[in-house]
Records
---
Amino acid sequence: MTHLKTLIASGLLATIAATSALAETNALPPLSTNEYINTRLIAAGIGHEIRETCPSISARMFYALWQAKKLQDYALDLGYSHDQIDSFINDMNEQRRVTGAVKVYMAENGVVEGNTESYCALGRAEIAKKSIAGSLLRAR
């Protein structure tokens, strides 16, 4: 699946993390192991899945873009380069890892593939609890 690429194209993830190989070159751990980065990547994926499936929920695009910029700045402040971040975004293994985590979270929270209302219910719940994913969404 290319859900993470879709997020990137939407500007929700703008440049976020770095590849393991390049990170090791700089003696930095891969950002894929950074809890802050992962939490936000997964939240963005959850928000994306919900807004793509539930017709009564949309993205808060300007807020999402601002959050993506903050996440990029966070990675840069840790010492990762733009090239490292871009490499991570295009890494299919990382995309599959994040997509897998999104699917697990959604299934654990009642989402049933093909059941639009289950996506909407999760979206409303995320918005109500003001989660990271919920902060990226708006009920119409």
---
Amino acid sequence: MTPLHHIGNLVRELLLQVPLPVVRALFLAVPIVLLIWVLRLPREVTTSPESSGRAGQNLKYGAALALLIQIAIYSFM
């Protein structure tokens, strides 16, 4: 076996020691943190300066909705 096989086996053994509930929590934590970040963005960053009317609406609400749907789906996995 090459040295890369030994490194790969070591990494695999380390990752197998992580409990599945921890993996699930981390899997859900990433989109939750992203949702918090998106909701905290200022309005000037999420709208176009030349926009007018509905076409230039604040995009963070659509992104937040997409992240909420993603979190809901991931929570059932």
---
Amino acid sequence: MVIPKCKDKLLKYDKIQDIPDYWIKEEEWRLSIYRKWRDMWERVKNDSAYNDCIICHNYIRLSNYFIDIIKLENFDLFKENPKGWSIDKDIKIPGNREYKFEALSLVTRSDNSKDMRARNKTPNPRKPIIGISINDNSIIIFDFIRQSEGKGFDPRNIVKCLKGIRKSHKGYKWYYLNIIEL
């Protein structure tokens, strides 16, 4: 793959090349758009599930991607709370394998997950989890992983513990709670 030049700099992972650094620090939603653009490139480049996906040539530049994103329906809601939103390429056009403006939509993370589960025919993954303190063996239980955010835990790190990638998170070892009915 030829790496395009953008304003005398090479386009590289984790660096903005055609938008000034100060721009990204101004507002959280701008940083979120950058991360979604960067993650799009990383998925297509490194994730085997996206081997046959392509990104339209226009999106080599972050500025072009940004211009399209602000035109999408729900952009105003996204701007208010960027963490709760996803940019999806195959809700409008099921089975779509190209990142292009005509296919993109801004959807809540919840709706995106529901759509993905429906396409993959997988059940709702909400399972109770238990954290056991490394220090005193005290326990904390949540009905589902996202619920842990309210107590200051990072759900992504808990998932890493559940998958065996991490040993602990914030002083707790994490497990799925198997509820047994007697």
